[in-house]
Structure formats: C-alpha cells, structure tokens
Design brief:
The chain is mainly α and 328 residues long. Helices cover 75% and strands 0% of the residues.
Length: 328
Amino acid sequence: MRKYIIKRLFLSAIIFFFVMLIIYTLMRCLPTSYIENIARAKSQQPGSKSYEEWMAQLTVMYGMDKGILAGYLNWLSDFFSGNFGDSWFYTVPVIQKFNETVWLSFWMGLITMFFELIIAIPLGIIAATKQYSRTDYTISILALAFISLPTFFFIALLKLVFSVKLGWFDLFGLVGRYYQQLSPWGQFLDKAHHLVLPIVTLVVISIGGLMRYTRTNMLEVLNADYIRTARAKGLDEKKVIYHHAFRNTLIPLVTIVGGSLPALFAGALFTETMFSIPGIGYTSYQAMVAGDIPFSMFYLAFIAILTLVGNLIADILYAVVDPRVRLA
C-alpha cells in the first residue's frame, strides 16, 4: 500500500505540472486581460501617458514580460513557497478572497452531496429490485426528468412559486434586509433560509444521474451467478440485496463519490449567479472574465490537486469496499 501511494503521488505531481502548464498557457492567451483594462482606463485620464506606455509599465510590474515557460516556472516556484500573490481584479491577497468565498460553496456542496446520496442511492436500489414495475417506471421517469431539466428554467420556476406567489423566500441574496439587527443564531437561520432554494436546485439537478447509475449497476449485480446461488440457498432477500449485491455496487459508486471531492469546492456558477450567492464559483468566473491570472491560477491549481487526491482516495477505497481488489 505504501509503495502504491508513493508511486501515485509521484505520478500525480507530474500530471499536476503539465496540467497547470496548459492552464497557464491558456490564461496568458486569454482575449481579455485586467492589465489591458487598467492601462486603457489610465490612458484616458487627462494628461496621462499613452495606452502603450501604460501597458509596457504594467506588464513589467506584473511579470508578464517573461515568456510563457519562464513565467510558469516562476509562478510554480511562488505557488509551492506559499506566495500566491494579489488578485488583480479584487485588489486583495488571493488567499484572502478565496477564504471569503470558498466555504460558502463548500457547505452548499456538502449538504447537496448528503441529500444526493441519501435520496438517489436508495431510489436506484428500489428501482432495480422492482424492475419493470410501476415503481421502477416512476423512478426512471423522474431520473430522466431531473437529468433533462434546464437549471435556469428550474430556478425560475422555484422563484415564481416560492418567492413570487407564496412569498416564502427572497428572490435573491444571502441575507435579508434586517440581518444586522439579528442575534448570531438569528443570522445563521437567516442565511440558512436564503440557501434553501439554491440547495434544492443543486440536489434536484444532480440526483437523476446517480439514480440511473445506481439502478444500472444494481441490475447488473442482481443478475450475477453468485446472487442466484445466494437466493437458491434460501437467504433472506434483504440480506441478498443489501449485504451481497449492494457491496459490489459500491465500487462504481466510490468512483463517483471520490470524483465529487473537487465539486465540493468548485462552486455552482449558474446557481450562485441566479440567486446572487457570493460563492467561489461566481467569484472565480468573474476573475477569469477579467483576466485575473493570480486568482484564476490559484483556484484552478486547488481544483486540480483536489481532483488528483479524489482519484487516489477512490482507488484506495476500492480495496476497502471489495477485498478482492489488490493495489499493486
């Protein structure tokens, strides 16, 4: 196990190096740049230098005068030394802006994953064990509907029903108008109240795929020879399904859950935007549009590391879930 983990970490470091090189190259080739916006704004001030002069000065100031490879190696050195720089767009240290926004998205993602697992997996198992029944058809139709449901349409529908018609929730925002007058517990409840519709949106649009995936894998396992043998021996049906069949269904599910680790911190751009939630998804999008290379590179590097760690955890969990799997 130790040798396997060391080998995977070494490979992950190589993958990270080349992935971030590609991302850095793309960031340097973006059609927009915050430096260009600053230079254009300053050149239009009375008595100011020309746009070209400002560009030359700012390019040197932000280290953009170096080649792509030299600039990337310089960024990589700063990244691993803990020097993440300042955000050009938000004009604060990168790590400060990241900390201000990522935890809101994390808790939204964690709550969404919790409800996704406790809803989608049981429904997928029920659909598989009652194949071709009304229950199976109902669950399958719901799953396909959730998969096909456009996010913007569902959000608009939720707002129309629960905000406009019933008045139960605000149309947008993270806090209410009287937030500052509330006690700490009241402020917590106010934020939780504003996050109900965004979390409902994320849960509904994500459970469909997991329901179908669970059903498909469960059906494959239930048709295996050892399941028929277990039933022929007279084992209780619940024990056959939840002890023998479900354990083997866990292997593909572990892949999904392990791959969901980056999603906890990635944020939900569209949902956060339509509900005006200041999460990391919307924040990073604004930084990328503005050409904010320091913030965008830190955010993408963080997601890349989480992706590699998530894959490693999933591979290790294979051996935990299924003793027949051996890491070599």
